């Protein structure tokens, strides 16, 4: 069997899943952010992912060409920047934009992404976040989820993992990273104003990172299952 590669269909499904998940988790994210922030993170992410899903669906109906994953990720980036308020918009938007640029340079000739390309995209996303937010690991921000995710993705790719395996490793590491923010005292962002009172909660941006990487993995698994089913039918 040929190595799995992710297509534009994956990005489309990923964003649809992210839209559904952020709608479902909106209140939980609001409450989490209210405890250590200004309480708007859940609303902002839900609004942003709704806009992304609508934009991609509209583009799919009118486009005459098959887009590459990089092209769709760039659309996601600009839509997030325009529709997600607070600090999350510029940060996640920059992450998606850097990921788009990275995948455009390391993807296959047809634009599809293998495990190494996915790892490179996640590393680029992390670099964008740190460049924009000036945050480091241990400061109770989304970087505490993205950094271990990027590292796990690279390790999985170097071990020969395909795109789905790389994403699964990243999602798992991100969840562990988000959990690790609970005892931290925030030194960046609005939560830092609370000092020691910021301890005891997961960082909302780190939780949103987990949701994004988890839905990315689910979409990749669905694409892989569809490809295997199609291959089975062809073999009959």
Structural Rg: 17 Å
Count of the separate structural domains: 1
> Share of helix among residues?
over 70%
What would you give as the CATH superfamily? DhaL domain
Count of DSSP strands:
0
Distance between the termini: 15 Å
Characterize the main sheet.
none
- Decide which structural class fits the backbone: mainly alpha
Fraction of residues in β-strands: under 5%
The average pLDDT score comes to 92
**H/I helix tally:** 9
Domain DhaL: 9-218
GO molecular function, one term: glycerone kinase activity
Protein name: Dihydroxyacetone kinase DhaL subunit
Organism: Bogoriella caseilytica
Keywords for this structure?
mainly alpha; 9 helices; globular; 0% strand; Serine Threonine Protein Phosphatase 5, Tetratricopeptide repeat; 236 residues
Question: How would you characterize the overall build of this protein?
Answer:
The protein has 236 residues and is mostly helical. It has a single domain, classed as DhaL domain (Serine Threonine Protein Phosphatase 5, Tetratricopeptide repeat, Alpha Horseshoe), CATH 1.25.40.340. Helix content is 72%, strand content 0%. It has 9 helices and no strands. It has helices spanning 8-24, 26-36, 41-62, 69-83, 88-106, 115-133, 143-158, 163-180, 204-235. Helix 2 runs antiparallel to helix 3 (41-62) and helix 6 runs parallel beside helix 8. The longest helix is centred in the C-terminal third of the chain and has 32 residues, at 204-235. The two termini are 15 Å apart. The mean pLDDT is 92.
